[in-house]
Amino acid sequence: MNDIADYDQLLFRIQDSLIIQLVLQLPGDGHEPIMNSFFAQPPDRMYSWCKDPSGSRIIEAIISSEHIPLATKRQVLDQYSNKYADLAVNKYGSHIVDACWKVSDMPYKEKIMIELIQREMLVQDSPFGRIVMRNCRVEQYKRRADEWRERERSLQKGKRMFKDIFDSSSTPNKRSDKKSKKSKM
Length: 185
Prior knowledge:
With 185 residues, the chain is mainly alpha-helical. 74% of the residues lie in helices and 0% in strands.
């Protein structure tokens, strides 16, 4: 398996990929034409993008964007169902698995986990796969699945709590801004 990119054969030019990534991070509905085009592609093409240096960054941007609805992200996750183990062993695809893991809820995480365990020999033989296995805590799941589930639930709960805190503190208070300007004078 050759993970070195032949830049004459890239599916996306780097500049194109960067522009698409930026558009996906913008608020509003500017991402909709990109997502419509994405879902209009054959599944094999979407899968090949995961193994492309520039294409994989676009997929990561889709998955990690705060402005793309969760339902749309779940459609993306479903596109890679039964392919997570193959992606985990790829230099670029392993980042996709990690990104999917971060946005997944418990049922999706368990789906990914089961696939990784079913193909554990393949995944463990790859340095990228071993990193994915560690990030997903596969060994803990195999030893004590109930403890793993409880830990994942508490992590998700903590993320939701902190997200609420950061979301409320990220909107600037106009009154405090005025006070800070006066104190600088």
